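Entry 14. Structure prediction run on the chain below.
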Amino acid sequence: MKIDIKKYQASTQKKFKLKDFATSYSGDLDKEKGKLELEKAKLQLSNYQEKLYASGQQSVLIIFQAMDAAGKDSAIEHVMSGLNPQGCQVYSFKTPSSEEYRHDFLWRHYKALPEKGKIGIHNRSHYENVLVCKVHPEYVLSENIPAYTNVKQMDAKFWKNRYENIRNFEKQLTDNGTVILKFFLNVSKEEQKQRFLDRIEDPAKNWKFAAGDLKERALWKKYMEAYEEAIQETSTANAPWFVVPADKKWYTRLVISQVIAETFEKMNLKYPVLPKEEANQLQVLKQQLLDEK
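Output returned:
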């Protein structure tokens, strides 16, 4: 059963509003059917990945952004579990290092891009620079940008320029054969609360919770505004945003898997065809093997 993935794609034509996207929708599917559909999609992804690797002409960059406890890690684990690890490059971006702060904000993300024939998965990404940094502009001061020595200088023009940098970065990638998919896992504040409580109550999950999580949760409204503006400014035809309901993890994973599968299908991937001379040589080599005693 195919999901209409267009309903989750942020428009490039009209003003983006998070309130237009549900957090718990799951259509007519139940959890068991959803799991079966996920397995089908994973088989498709495995087949497409092999063709991507064999052709070696394009790469795929998949970006995951979300609030804490939205399910990024588990989505990556479940959706990508059928892929060949040799063809994937997974990066989880944390606070920049001192070396990374000595370069422009995109530098470390350039370094993590997938090579041709491979799939790159970024758990958090260059968007942190217009999300967490928008909520905490003091973090930008660590970048030592000459024109910005205090947070009051980071006005609307500063952020507009940063969105433009991101659009240009992504355009350069798509112009050179990288297909970009960006997922925002849209979890509700109520569901996040329940997942935090689960982490506190389950000793096996205690390590996932930190006091700082509640400090960021208190800034929920500011984060939603930052996400809304970032998606509005950077959703393009070549690098689309998908706003996926995240209150039901099984449905989140299914939507993501089908978006990726449909994207691969549109790429029209094919195994490379050998030139006639090389194909003829294969037949000679085949005969040599058959003639072995």
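The first strand starts at residue 59 and ends at 66.
Filed with the rest of this week's runs.
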